[in-house]
Amino acid sequence: MKISALLSRGSAPSELVEAELDDPRPDEVIVRIEAVGVCHTDLVTRKKLGERPAVLGHEGCGTVEYLGSSVDGLAVGDRVVISFASCGGCAQCRAGRPGYCAWATALNGSGRRLDKTPTIRVRDEPVFGAFFGQSSFATAALADAGSCVPVGDVPPAAVASLGCGFLTGAGAVLNVLRPRPGDRLLVVGAGGVGAAAALTALSEGVEVVVAEPVAARRALLARYGATAVASPADSIPAVTHALDTTGRPESIARALTLLRPHGVLVLVGLGPAEVSLDMRTLMLRGLQVRGCVEGDAEPSVLIPELVRRYRSGLLPLDHLVTTYPLGDFDRAVADQQAGVTLKPVLLPGSRR
């Protein structure tokens, strides 16, 4: 199948190219992409791959166009959010924790299927594809049917990032931190992940403090009831729960000092491999530090719940999003890094 795809090569400007998508295997589908979020992981991977040509993108939302011969539970015409890939059969997948799938790295980051066959070719040459099981910076994506979650008639741009970024933030709150009314949650960093976490906690009736240097992001979350400060080093009352989305050692250390006894800190941001922690503080105050991947979520369960909250007005995800044509990827990234945009979402069907 011929498609248009956004081809990346290291730090060079991205370009829209004609590409060929492989035919779906029995357990795969082809989704016509209507919207796809831009995530920090896309940028990290692009840098890591160097000059290797790649089609990235892993927060796709669109309409199912073709079904593999053994696919059940989906129909042509269904609007779906495509989430990360998992094997479905290992111990973690069977326990409802597919983010920790035994095959997660190979399925989501190898650039090919598990059997090492490519899914995308450009100029008759295989390129890095199958990113998070989809490579959705394109007009269509090949995905495992099990990664596709039907979402019904909702705006694709609003829900696309439920495939990863919004799922991570909301899941960290609902599945791991689990604050209740009367608790106070500190969210460090209010990009897509942190903002989704803050809105989710507010929808639970939890008091939220957001530490974020970008004034526009602080103002947006304050509008929905969060207390917003520029830095975790500012004066912040003691909190029962904390979420760090930055991975910065100084932010993690500061969050620990703000936790009440028996408080919980969850880490979802990747930073330096090593961080120094005050073990006396951890032990004597009974604190917990937890890592969290993809919100500890089962996408087929959590995504419909988050869509329900969005429909009811409890989770205004569309207010976090700014849309761009697919070919404006580099401008979208520049705007996000400059703080102009909170969560860029690309629309493959739009023109410049």
TrEMBL record:
Coiled coil location: none
Is Secreted given among the entry's keywords?
A: no
**Does the record's keyword annotation contain Cytoplasm?**
no
Which SUPFAM superfamilies does the record associate with it? Answer: GroES-like, NAD(P)-binding Rossmann-fold domains
Which residues belong to any copy of the Enoyl reductase (ER) domain?
10-346
Cofactor names from the entry are:
Zn(2+)
Q: Which Gene3D superfamilies match?
A: Medium-chain alcohol dehydrogenases, catalytic domain, NAD(P)-binding Rossmann-like Domain
**Keywords linked to the UniProt accession:** Metal-binding, Oxidoreductase, Zinc
Regarding protein family, the annotation reads:
Belongs to the zinc-containing alcohol dehydrogenase family.
What is this protein identified as?
Alcohol dehydrogenase catalytic domain-containing protein
Record the organism: Streptomyces caeni
